[in-house]
Design a protein that fits this description.
The chain has about 290 residues and is of the alpha/beta class. The chain has 8 helices and 13 strands. A hairpin with a 2-residue loop joins strand 10 and strand 11.
Length: about 290
């Protein structure tokens, strides 16, 4: 059992130093509540509105910002997850999130699924991913002293196969970092809860909050457990619910023992039809 902190912030566009200073402040504040994991949103390091400046502010992972946050993790004893633009080989960018802990750099996730093109309206399609980033393809789960952690970035949440894969790889906690605009609020909240229910696994969602480049982000970060053990039913009330629209630091208590208690009553992992995944892969290849 440990305390999870969700730090939904509004980063300043392309201001890496200023955003790191803000992140450090939130990690220190989370440490006062003995948080063992602090999660920041998608593109927390640079903001989502960098456009061509993504090529100027992107960093290697590990790199300078990773090293600074790893030192902070060592000082506070907490693990830290955050989103940032990653430079791969020169000129190739990824929309990534990174994980560091008290012992240093742990690992990264490159966003698998890249939505739409940027628009001026801030409505559907207002995402720069396909213009600037390459899709990731590896699906790691990371061993830490606070359990096995799987990470995903925003649109990855919409693909249940990704969450299921990380769960089958033994993830105790699925962490979704997001840059979800206001119009997506009614979409994202139920989907994150469903990912927890259909996998009987802990989930944590941390979203951007506030306004960047005229796009409003709804915040509303939260965590969800694997189910209601007392009622022997899937689904659990949202834990650590953050306010909408504004920056906030919110906490939730994570207890992995509930997972093993819940799965006998709702055995979705046991009942998986494995042949279905072979058919799914074949059908997906036909679409391509």
């Amino acid at each position: 059992m440990y305390n999870l902190a969700l730090a939904q912030i509004c980063p300043r566009t392309a201001d890496v130093k200023g955003n790191l200073d803000k992140m450090e402040h939130y990690v220190v504040e989370a440490g006062k509540e003995n948080a063992k994991l602090v999660v920041f949103p998608e593109m927390a390091l640079t903001g989502y509105g960098c456009s061509d400046r993504f090529f100027e502010v992107a960093e290697n992972i590990p790199g300078p910002s990773t090293e600074r946050l790893a030192r902070l993790a060592k000082d506070t004893g907490a693990y830290i997850i955050w989103g940032m633009p990653e430079m791969g080989v020169p000129g190739v960018l990824y929309n990534s999130c990174a994980l560091v802990g008290p012992d240093g750099y742990v690992g990264k996730w490159r966003k698998h699924t890249l939505p739409g093109h940027a628009t001026d309206s801030g409505g559907p399609g207002s995402f720069p991913d396909t213009r600037f980033f390459r899709a990731g393809s590896e699906s790691p789960v990371f061993d830490t002293k606070i359990g096995r952690i799987g990470m995903m970035v925003c649109y990855d949440t919409f693909f249940p196969e990704i969450s299921r894969l990380l769960t089958l790889k033994g993830a105790d906690l699925l962490v979704f970092v997001a840059g979800s605009p206001a119009f997506e609020r009614e979409i994202f909240e139920p989907i994150v809860r469903v990912r927890a229910i259909e996998n009987t696994v802990w989930t944590a969602f941390c979203n951007l909050a506030g306004v960047e480049n005229n796009i409003a982000y709804w915040g509303g970060s939260f965590a969800v457990g694997p189910g209601n053990v007392e009622a022997k039913l899937p689904g659990q009330p949202i834990l650590g619910k953050a306010p909408y629209d504004v920056e906030a630091l919110t906490f939730a208590e994570i207890d992995y023992s509930l997972t093993s208690k819940m799965r006998p009553f709702f055995p979705v992992i046991r009942d998986l039809p494995d042949r279905l995944y072979e058919d799914l892969g074949q059908a997906a290849r036909i679409l391509g």
